[in-house]
Prior knowledge:
The chain is mainly beta. Among the domains are: 37-289 and 458-478, Trypsin-like serine proteases (Thrombin, subunit H, Beta Barrel); 333-376, no CATH class. 8% of the residues lie in helices and 24% in strands. It has helices at residues 119-126, 272-286, 434-439, 468-478; strands at residues 20-25, 49-50, 57-64, 67-77, 80-83, 111-114, 134-140, 153-157, 183-188, 203-209, 226-228, 241-243, 249-257, 261-267, 341-345, 348-351, 367-369, 374-376, 395-398, 404-406, 422-424, 429-431, 447-452. The chain has a seven-stranded antiparallel beta sheet, with no helix packed on it. A hairpin with a 3-residue loop joins β13 and β14. α1 (119-126) packs across α4. The chain is globular.
Amino acid sequence: MPLPRRFLAVSALALLASPLVLVASCGAPSAPAPQEHTSYTRQGIMGGTDDTGDPNVVGIAIIAGWSGGLCSGSLIAPNLILTARHCVSSVPTQIDCSTATFGSTYSANSFEVTTIWNAPATFMYSGSLPGTSYKVDQVTVPSNNKVCGNDVALIRLKGAGIPASEAQPIVPRVDKVVDTGEAYRAVGFGATNDTGSGAGQRRQLGGLAVSCSVMCPAFYMAPQTEWEGDHGICEGDSGGPALDAQNRVIGVVSRGGTNCTSPIYGSVYGWADWIKQNALAAAQAGGYQPAPWVTGGATGSDIDGGAAGSGGGGGSGGSTGVPGGPGAPCSVSADCQSQVCVFEDSNTQYCSERCSADNTTCPPGMVCSTSVGACFLPGGFAATCQSGADCRSGVCVTDGNGHLYCSQYCDTNNPVCPDNSTCSGEPAACYQPPSVVAASGQSSGCSVSNAPVTDPTKPIPWIVGFGVLGLLALRRRRS
């Protein structure tokens, strides 16, 4: 949705392409329709209240060339701010999650930071931040340039940073994974609706709950480094925090759906090692002692001290973030805490737990296969589906008889498909052998064509741009 004319558009962030159903026809292959994309930019808290009491949730004023914008961030150390990478780096206007990469990172002098709850509103129209603002010394981003799953960044302020008398840093929860259903509140400087209204004032919204963590459908998020939230996140909230019951940062706003729904957060736990490493460097640069969580101390009373510091490292590790836990990759049973390593297909093995017809209890997000006697993640290869939303790959194929099952894309020049399935069609997907499909009540596929289906996290603009006159004023002031 375009911003009003008074806004100058900032580089758009399209973090999500619509999942597809591959519809087969047994005649000549039809040309694939262009894959649907929806533009994202960076995303106030819809339905929230003014927030003058969280000065450690800061506003980030962005100047990049002749365009500018506004993001939110969390002060996690006196001179260190956790935010979203799309707030500090360029991205393509249209993005396919499977291929899109971040471009260059903006220079440190492209940013200014404020703790004042309503200062960014003035900045958006005048180009200057009222009161004290802070300059940036360094911007750090993950080494992986792929957009989806790597939308986090750290901004280091010049000198010792923000005085404790002005804002006390928020503790990032680097030692405990987010649970599905866990309560949190969102804080940010964004708008109150999809059109950008009300942006530039810090707001908060409580009573939210984590919709999905750890074992979420892989076609619209990266479960190792992202989780799905509740609602209320809009333009300008990008980079802002999700705060748990103990007021610790557990997530970084990345993207979301229309009407400020279905927000996707970068997982603080998933980036624990990377955050701690850079926080230690920031303490050395600022000349202060790092907080206990930086060197392995527990972040709260609900954390087992023996587990402190065991967080993930920037996208590596199992689906749970816990080595050997349900959903973590495995090769043999000894890799798993449960001593159960299940084989979903030739490319996919993960830790599980045993179950039976008498006891079908499984870990959250898994279902019991009584014929095998173990728990499996839903939506795997060959699972029955009605659309791409039913499959972890986002790809549901069908044959001429109307039988549908989960598949995955492949490359006919270098085909890699599960088990004995074959790579064919346009666009190419993996099809089971006729004998396998017949045995399961399905039949083999023919040619395919793209048919877009509903995406649960259909993206909307997330960065708020500010007035052209304000931008010109700011450029004159800086020069």
